[in-house]
Design brief:
Cytochrome Bc1 Complex, Chain D, domain 2; three-stranded antiparallel β-sheet; 41% helix; globular; disordered N terminus
Length: 287
């Protein structure tokens, strides 16, 4: 038999879910065209084989006019400040090897073009997928003799933003043919449809079953991650994809997995795949 506290918690959770359901109203995303620095972004794409949706859409289409205009104007986009900071870090010498990122990779506009569109990739050494953040840490430790960044370190976010910005406009495409990527993709899919926490919600509950609906002031998108790291107006800073995953799971009132855990790396792989064909928009702007 449930004790009193448990019964109250269950009733409150049920009440919240009921309220959320009652407040949801349908609102179609816009069909506007997004052009950034003269580059037309792909905001609608044909889904890859096995995708549950008929059309893959950028989260930009679900945002309010003021938010959309911020992303479309690089002079106004606050995320561009982090691109500039990332460029400084790219050229900064750190570690015992006396190297910077530029020492090996030179001009990021050339060497990093396309990188943000293809990660996560298979890492044969660790036998798991790694994203741009983990690749940065790998280079710092193995090539620069510098310590890995702590998760969500400001420099880590800025450098990731700078690197992914070099792929602006390029379509997302992850290679599932390498190593055990297909098994990790399946694991990520399982996580995506798993219900978490007291609210008993999965990623699919919002971004698949209810995408296009309004919940309070938020217009639920498909949850694609082609714009991450993303500048969020409500926190006035860049947010990494792993941070966003953990925040969503926290909001279900569940135990929060560690960043870059197997569960969250698999989820990042799967969710990135779900956005196949959309342009890299980093730094995107969301509310």
């Amino acid at each position: 038999m449930l004790n009193t506290k448990t019964m109250i918690a269950a009733l409150c959770a049920g009440a919240v879910v009921s309220c959320v359901t009652l407040q949801m109203t349908k609102a179609d995303p816009v069909t506007d065209e997004l052009v950034i620095d003269g580059k037309k972004m792909i905001t609608h794409a044909k889904p890859p084989e096995g995708h549950p949706l008929d059309v893959v859409r950028s989260g930009w289409l679900y945002r309010e006019p003021d938010t959309r205009s911020l992303e479309a104007d690089s002079f106004e986009n606050p995320g561009m400040l982090f691109v500039s900071k990332g460029e400084q870090i790219w050229n900064k010498v750190e570690g015992t090897a006396g190297k910077s990122c530029a020492s090996c990779h030179h001009d990021a506009a050339k060497s990093m073009k396309g990188v943000g569109a293809k990660y996560p990739v298979w890492d044969a050494k660790t036998k798991r997928p790694i994203d741009v953040e983990l690749q940065i840490d790998k280079c710092r430790v193995e090539q620069m003799g510098a310590p890995a960044y702590k998760f969500d370190d400001g420099n880590q976010r800025a450098l990731t933003t700078y690197i992914k910005y070099q792929s602006l406009g390029m379509p997302v495409h992850v290679d599932l043919s390498k190593g055990d990527m297909k098994a990790w993709w399946q694991k990520g899919k399982d996580v995506y449809y798993t219900r978490f926490g007291q609210l008993n919600l999965s990623c699919a509950s919002c971004h698949e079953e209810n995408n296009g609906k309004h919940i309070r002031a938020d217009h639920l998108s498909q949850g694609n991650v082609n714009g991450f790291p993303t500048y969020r107006l409500n926190t006035t800073g860049m947010v990494s994809v792993q941070n966003r995953f953990r925040g969503c799971i926290r909001d279900t009132r569940a135990e929060i997995p560690k960043a870059f855990s197997d569960e969250l790396m698999a989820l990042e792989l799967y969710v990135t795949w779900r956005g196949t064909g959309l342009s890299v928009e980093t730094p995107a702007v969301r509310q």
